[in-house]
Amino acid sequence: MAEKVSLATSEYRTIGEIAGPLVFVSKVKGASYNEMVEITSSDGATRFGQVIEIAGEMAVVQVFGPTSGLDVLNTRVRFSGEVAKMDCSINLLGRVLNGMGQPIDGGPEVFPEEVREVSGSPINPWRRDEPRDFIQTGISAIDGLNTLVRGQKLPIFSGSGLPGNELAAQIVRQAKILGGEEFAIVFAAMGITRREAAFFEESFAKSGALERVVFFMNLADDPTVERLLTPRCALTVAEFLAFEHDMQVLVILTDMTNYCEALREISTAREEVPGRRGYPGYMYTDLASIYERAGRIKGKTGSVTQVPILAMPDDDITHPIPDLTGYITEGQIVLSRQLHRKGIYPPIDVLPCLSRLMNLGIGEGRTRADHRGVADQLYAFYAEGVDLRRLVAIVGEEALTDLDRMYLKFADAFEQNYQDQKDENRDLDQTLELGWKLLSMMPKESLKRLKDSMIEQYYNPEGAEDIMAAQA
Fold first, then answer.
1. What is the DSSP code (8-state) at residue 414?
2. How does DSSP classify residue 348?
3. What predicted TM-score, i.e. pTM, was given to this entire model?
4. How would you classify residue 151: left for phi > 0, otherwise alpha for psi between -120 and 50, otherwise beta?
5. Whole-angstrom distance, CA of residue 291 vs CA of residue 307
6. Each residue's pLDDT tens digit, 136-191
């Protein structure tokens, strides 16, 4: 468990101030940054905390729990001499833990194979292997156009009321390496409601995925500062499973916006000079310390792949949280409120989406030789159709050419057939064949991004007749 420490005898009763979740302890000697502490109130209740700042003989401790009941005269603070650690074991698979790594599912005690610091160890750049190998999520908009590869970090930008949680649960149920190997899942939920927690547990249990999931659950009414440890505890377990047990591990972090709000709350309590929109200036570095723990190591079979999910405040992709996340990670999947209103699920807007490492996981010998060309051509046709929708709103459809009208029909068919799939789990061949059906709606001479040999092999206007009839 993350807060289990071996307590030393250095005890202080020199609390000068208690501000929100922070306790300021004076006349402290030999304390260390990130050191764990035990806080005992006058009534004997015990809380745990962590040193987050040292200034001379002043130590600032953030408390994992409420500070009500603590007073400056009678509260005792013991410094452990150790940083936060996590008990790691393969037997954590199938278990539900709180945000600090304590089992809360009523199951048996977990005996650790190894105890690791939750801060992790950076991967030596010389030993880091490039992410590669296609990951099938069963979702065409991701597999076909914005492919996730093993060892990548690919965030999902959602919004209030959009089905980001549903998409996360679907990826957990369906994700696998091409060839059938399933992932071990480390799922870290931060600041979620009890209703959302019940949804995730029920979804994993019904699909049978729970037995390969380590579920970290930090609820909205749990201590805010616990949220700062939750993703680090989760990634510590993920690294252990990947690099000690050679497992392919998929880490889902939701919702990173709640994590950043907790970071801002702690920064405000410390009276730090705020950065953009009140978030601390070091938020980029803090997020990087989480996201950069994805990857592969040369000589190791296992891998850690990350899919962070965050809710963009006011659907603003330039907000500091998605903005900084986009800089650190290798692309983004963006959910669209407009598509959601049309009833399309998943409402992935493929135009602003990007997977920078897609080419490392697709192509001949990995997926199919036509994968890149199909993705480029679908994207080009759909972008043309969306642009023409804006033009039609101004000049009307009568001003369009016959080819322009075909682009419009293609855009509608793409959304209704390729993007909208509800809970359907499509394998890659189904995704690519559906892509060719859509491309076959267009004149053969307009397929500029595909090799002639591929067009001759897959182009089939007769196969697109059912889609064309629906769009007529």
1. I
2. B
3. 0.90
4. left
5. 9
6. 999 999 999 999 999 999 999 999 999 999 999 999 999 988 766 778 999 999 99
Let me know: does 457 contact 374? Beta carbons within 8 Å. no
Q: Letter for the amino acid at 203?
A: S
The total number of structural domains that make up the chain: 3
Residues 355 and 403 in one domain: no
What is the pLDDT, as a whole number, of residue 21?
Answer: 85
> Is residue 366 in a domain?
no
Backbone dihedral region for residue 325 (phi beyond 0: left; psi -120 to 50: alpha; all else: beta): alpha
Q: Are strands 176-177 and 331-334 parallel, antiparallel or unpaired?
A: unpaired
Task: Indicate the pLDDT class of residue 9, thresholds 50, 70 and 90.
Answer: low
Q: What percentage of residues in the chain have a pLDDT greater than 70?
A: 97
Of 308, 334, 360, which marks where a domain is finished? 360
pLDDT in tens, 162-172: 999 999 999 99
H or E, element range at 270: none
CA distance 392 to 407: 12
Check: CB of residue 370 under 8 Å from CB of residue 432: yes
Q: Edge-to-edge strand order for the sheet containing 10-12?
A: 10-12, 76-83, 35-40, 46-55, 58-63, 22-25, 15-19
Work out the average pLDDT over 82-108.
92
Residue 26: name the closest of 77, 82, 68, 81 by CA: 77
Range of the domain at 461: 371-471
Asked whether the beta carbons of 134 and 361 are under 8 A apart, the reply is yes
Cβ distance 361 to 150 under 8 Å?
yes
Q: Residue holding tokens 């690919």?
A: 154
Distance CA 266, CA 368 (A): 49
Do both 284 and 295 map to the same domain?
A: yes
Query: Is the distance from CB of 187 to CB of 217 less than 8 angstroms?
Result: no
Tell me the three state secondary structure of residue 297.
strand
pLDDT at position 4 is 44
Same domain, 236 and 265: yes
| Pair of tokens at residue 276 | 């953009």
In this structure, the answer to whether residues 221 and 343 fall within a common structural domain is yes
Q: Which long-range contacts (CB under 8 A, 24 or more apart) does 372-377 make?
A: 373/449, 373/450, 373/451, 373/454, 374/144, 374/432, 374/435, 374/436, 374/439, 374/450, 375/144, 375/145, 375/435, 376/449, 377/439, 377/447, 377/448, 377/449, 377/450
User: Span 461-472, mean pLDDT?
Assistant: 78
Q: Which residues contact 193 (CB under 8 A, 6 or more apart)?
A: 219, 220
